[in-house]
Amino acid sequence: MHIDIPENVAAIINRFNENGYEAYAVGGCVRDSLLHKQPQDWDITTSATPDEIKRLFNKTIDTGIAHGTVTVRIGGEGYEVTTYRIDGEYEDCRHPKSVCFTASLTEDLKRRDFTINAMAYNPDEGVIDIFGGMDDLKAGIIRCVGNADERFNEDALRTLRAVRFAGQLGFNIEEKTYKAICNASQKIKNVSYERIRVELSKLLISDGPDRLIEAYNTGLTGVFLPEWDRMMETTQNNPNHIYTVGIHTIKAVEAVKRIYKGNDERELRILSWSAFLHDVAKPVCRKCDENGIEHFYGHPEKGAEMASVILKRLKFDNYTINMVSRLIRYHDYRFTGSKKELRRFVSRAGLDIMPLLFVLMEADVSAQSDYNREDKYRLLDISKELLKEIINDKETLTIKELKINGRDLIEMGITEGKQIGDILNTLFGEVIDNPELNDREYLLLRAKKISG
Questions:
Q1: What is the DSSP string of 393-448?
Q2: DSSP letter at 239?
Q3: I need a labelling partner for 277 at 20 to 30 A (CA). Which of 65, 80, 111, 386 fits?
Q4: pLDDT digits 0-9 by tens, 74-94
Q5: What pLDDT, on a 0 to 100 scale, did the predictor assign at position 55?
Q6: Residues of 202-226 as b/e, b for ≥16 C-beta within 10 angstroms?
Q7: The domain 7-132 belongs to what CATH superfamily?
Q8: Distance (Å, rounded) from C-alpha 106 to C-alpha 118?
Q9: Distance between CA atoms of 243 and 32, rounded to whole angstroms?
Q10: What are phi and psi of 69, to 5 degrees?
């Protein structure tokens, strides 16, 4: 089977072959090519040792020299080239204690996680598929190379990667592999939160975020995200809902991918995490009234706090934590169709989050029951149009946009800091309700009157 490989990759392979070494494109790039997807990276494996690799190429970087990996720079691009290796004993369920180089491609492929990731390719020999990866690709199966228990004992991250690949590719996890994940689920505690974050993010923005249910069923999230387990187990006996908190959440995450029309991966990731955690506080806020109806008063505010804790645990950057927390805090707000009310809301929530907040709100509504759904959509649409008018008319939304400031009040003889703040806040409240009042002369006169 022929695969179109980049010119630089072919040149690297040819250089090895011309000097008596074996070399192949390997792993995910082969898998994606066979699935007719564009590979993000092209990794190369070779029988040449790191020192031999460095002698063959002018520009190299010792990326992971202890594990046999050298980055070769060619045509302005970098390509990771790794010597065939056999991993030694794994002591921490994550990293081999040692590695030794080998001349056997089979031995190198044998140490890899899943059959679909254990294929190699070069133009002369075609696809090298020793462990049935092509058959599993055709069947849509995630299966470990060799003994699944051994693969997961070697590297516990592979348990979560199996779930992630199932979601990304729309595959099923093979039965023995699935049972082995359940058996090894507690070992995920040995994996850094940074690596867990990467896998979860890839799963959330994939076409199969519903595989988070499998992460729950196998016991994985019970270790690093117990809040998700409680969401899966929390009912919503309420006219607005037909699903448990967990299933509603999955539906909202799926809807985000449909509704969001941008092409910014960071924005999509922020939206997906916001949808995933928007109801994280419902299990702790649930109250049941005398009619058996469950209510979740205060869950947006509590959810913003809990989401911040979770995202910090997963080592997210401050920008993402701030954005997700704010989106969750305001996701359950119900617009009335009033322009004055919308200006007040935007001044409080922040104009910067409004495009994403509208997406999250629509996704949330789409994942609820049909109770008042059309009215909720209608008010969302009205609010979107009203916000466009507010922006086009340059109506005041922040106190910094007032035509006067603290310096003006000081020049009027007002020196007490609290009084300056109180006056500006009073003026801002009046301008928010009546944008035409944002006139310098009027505000100066009004400030003088307020100050006495």
A1: TT---SGGGSS--HHHHHHTT---HHHHHHHHHHHHHHHHH-GGG--HHHHHHHHH
A2: T
A3: 386
A4: 988 999 999 999 876 666 665
A5: 96
A6: bbbbbebbbbbbbbbbbbbbbbbbe
A7: Beta Polymerase, domain 2 (3.30.460.10)
A8: 10
A9: 35
A10: -105, 125
**Cα separation of 153 and 118, whole Å?**
18
The stretches of 140-241 forming alpha helices (DSSP H) are 148-154, 157-169, 175-184, 193-204, 212-217, 221-224, 226-232
Spatial contact of 341 and 319, defined as CB atoms under 8 Å apart: no
Contact criterion met (CB below 8 Å) for 396 and 378? no
Q: How far is CA 272 from the centre of its chain?
A: 6
Q: Are 218 and 163 in contact (CB under 8 A)?
A: yes
Determine the distance from the C-alpha atom of residue 412 to the mean position of all C-alpha atoms in its chain, rounded to a whole number.
Answer: 51
Please provide residue 83's backbone torsions phi and psi, each rounded to the nearest 5 degrees: -70, 140
Strand positions, DSSP E, 205-351: 287-288, 294-295
- 3-state SS assignment for residue 207: coil
Which CATH number, 1.20.1260, 1.10.3210, 1.10.8, 1.10.150, labels domain 225-392?
1.10.3210
Model confidence over 316-350: pLDDT tens digits?
A: 999 999 999 999 999 999 999 999 999 999 999 99
**Separation CA 396–CA 428 (nearest Å):** 8
> For the chain, which residues make up each domain, given as ranges?
7-132, 225-392, 399-451
Q: Give the residue among 143, 116, 126 at the shortest CA–CA distance from 28.
A: 116
300 is written with which tokens? 């947006």
The secondary structure element, H or E, covering residue 42 is: none
Which residue type, as a one-letter code, is found at position 272? S
Amino acid found at 392: N
- Asked whether the CA dihedral 143, 144, 147, 150 is positive or negative, the reply is negative
Question: pLDDT tens-digit profile of 358-397?
Answer: 999 999 999 999 999 999 999 999 999 999 999 999 999 9
Q: What is the pLDDT of residue 162?
A: 98
